[in-house]
Amino acid sequence: MRLSLSALTLAASLSLGAPGAGAQVPASSAADRISADSLRGHLSFLSSDLLEGRGTPSRGLDLAAEYIAAQFRRAGLEAAGDDGYFQTANWQHAQRNAGDFTLTVQAGGKTIAVPHSAATANFVQPVTLGATGVVRMTWQEALAAGPQVDGKVLVVPAAAVPDAADVLRDALKARPALVVLVDTRGQHRNRGEGWLIDPEQVAPAGAAPVVVLHDAAAAAALESAGTTVAATIGVPQLRAAKLRNVIGVLRGADPALKNTYVMLTAHYDHLGIRNGEIHNGANDDGSGTVAVIDIAAALAADKARPRRSIVFMALFGEELGLLGSRYYGRHPVFPLKDTVAHLNLEQIGRTDDSEGAQVGTATLTGFDYSTVPDYLKKAGERSGVRLWKHAANSDRYFARSDNQALADVGVPAHTLAVAFGFPDYHGKDDDWSKLDYDNMARITRMVALGLQDIANDPARPQWTNVPKAAPYREAGRKLMGE
Ligand SMILES: [Zn+2]
Questions:
Q1: How far is the CA of 317 from the centre of ligand 1 (A)?
Q2: Which domains can be identified in the chain, with CATH numbers?
Q3: How far does residue 28's CA lie from ligand 1's centre (Å)?
Q4: Which of 165, 173, 177, 272 would disulfide-bridge 53, Cβ 3.0–4.6 Å?
Q5: CA 326 to ligand 1 center in whole angstroms
């Protein structure tokens, strides 16, 4: 059925006149420009083998960044980086040769040599340590330890916190010669070769070197009395690593509101090459990335500009620990207090959720933490998508996705996904041919509509009063100077 122009105008004016619906754009709008074919086209390039899994850092990641920037340019977005569309983080990549690492544990007359591959030693300063006595402590005891461990080898089970080695290093009051963090489950092992160094977050001078030990035999030997540890660890090779967020902005039309911002992001990195296999990361998170590209193109092509400005951003380094979003949080291009909402997209192409098919549905992290989901629920009603709260994962993943950096500073920020878990998650077969593009187009249209509604609403989204949102609500008050 086709509606006549006058019927459309009438429908539009009716919906605009309805109470509480002032912000909603009609369902037939810029979002209709979003097509399954376009999403598939972009993704077939970004997740092709040529890009070698877009590891951080890699040539494949740089190629992806250039492609995304080209699409933002094509859409006519304003460049918002320090180098055109690129926000550049000038970091270093460090890698140590296996020959520059020896660590031995002597216990009960036996010597166990820990291979380089069974330890993670992400520090630059060289260590030369003869057989030295071991002091074993719990994580809490280690944090409180005084001079009794100075010059000793401090052995501590790794706490289940992100970046445990850095956290312990920075919190230690004592000056042990070496810290051995026991992590036989490999939770704090480097993903990929070497590690990244952010020059703004280097270890303080004199900080203890922390070796994370993944070797079960050596870990067991460290349990016995009279154990000593010896180590010779050389300086790693360092090279410059230029990491880039890709940022474009669609300027708002409202004279006052255009200086406020709604952010849409997705991470464009993935795992690179692991065990000789390219991990293409089509759903994770090529899908979110191409949705950002096509929403930008659709909204920028519309004659009617949103009232607020919309910031489109592709993030680096999510797979290594939310690096790109955290970098943006520390180096915001647009004032955070003027950033009214942030929506991050993750895994929106696969409908074969590990817990059952998810067609015509999407879920959000922090589902009842702020009023942002309300806009998306309404947008979902207009685009045939049901938004739902996952009983466990909606809360659990709130702090594990790229929305976290902005939420921490008080900006209402969420991650939208179709499936939290899917069969090829972080596997070598997360390929573009396996996505449901018709469903993905529907989800992407919903996001475009929701984004427009937030951008057109003169009222800002707010954190709610649910207890789990309390720290973010508090951060929000601080951000606004309340
Ligand atoms: Zn992801």
A1: 10
A2: 27-88+242-479 (3.40.630.10), 105-236 (3.50.30)
A3: 31
A4: 272
A5: 15
What is the three-state SS of the chain? CCCCHHHHHHHHHHHHHCCCCCCCCCCCCHHHHCCHHHHHHHHHHHCCHHHCCCCCCCHHHHHHHHHHHHHHHHHCCEECCCECCEEEEEEEEEECCHHHEEEEEEECCEEEEECHHHEECCCCCCEEEEEEEEEECCHHHHHHCCHHHCCCEEEEECCCCCCHHHHHHHHCCCCCCEEEEECCCCCCCCCCCCEEECHHHCCCCCCCCEEEECCHHHHHHCCCCCCEEEEEECCCEEEEEEEEEEEEEECCCCCCHHHCEEEEEEECCCCEEECCEEECCHHHHHHHHHHHHHHHHHHHCCCCCCCCEEEEEEECCHHHCCHHHHHHHHCCCCCHHHEEEEEEECCCCCCCCCCCCCCCEEEECCCCCECHHHHHHHHHHHHCCEEECCCCHHHHCHHHCCCHHHHHCCCCEEEEECCCCCCCCCCCCCCHHHCCHHHHHHHHHHHHHHHHHHHHCCCCCCECCCHHHHHHHHHHHHHCCC
Task: Tell me the pLDDT tens digit for each residue of 132-142.
Answer: 999 999 999 99
* CA–centroid distance, residue 268 to ligand 1 (Å): 8
Residue 385 Cα to ligand 1 midpoint, Å, equals 21
Measured in Å, residue 318 CA sits from the centre of ligand 1 at 7
Instruction: Determine the distance separating the centroid of ligand 1 and the alpha carbon of 128, expressed in angstroms.
Output: 39
Distance 426 CA to ligand 1 centre (A): 9
Instruction: Tell me the pLDDT tens digit for each residue of 194-242.
Output: 999 999 988 888 899 999 999 999 999 999 989 999 999 999 999 999 9
Task: State ipTM.
Answer: 0.95
pLDDT digits (tens, 9 = 90+) for 85-128: 999 999 999 999 999 999 999 998 899 999 999 999 999 999 99
Ligand 1 centroid to residue 267 C-alpha, Å? 7
Q: What span, in angstroms and rounded, lies between the C-alpha atoms of 106 and 222?
A: 8
How far does residue 256's CA lie from ligand 1's centre (Å)?
35
271 CA → ligand 1 middle, Å: 10
pLDDT tens readout for residues 146-159 = 999 999 999 999 99
Amino acid 49 reads D
The predicted structure's pLDDT at residue 53? 98
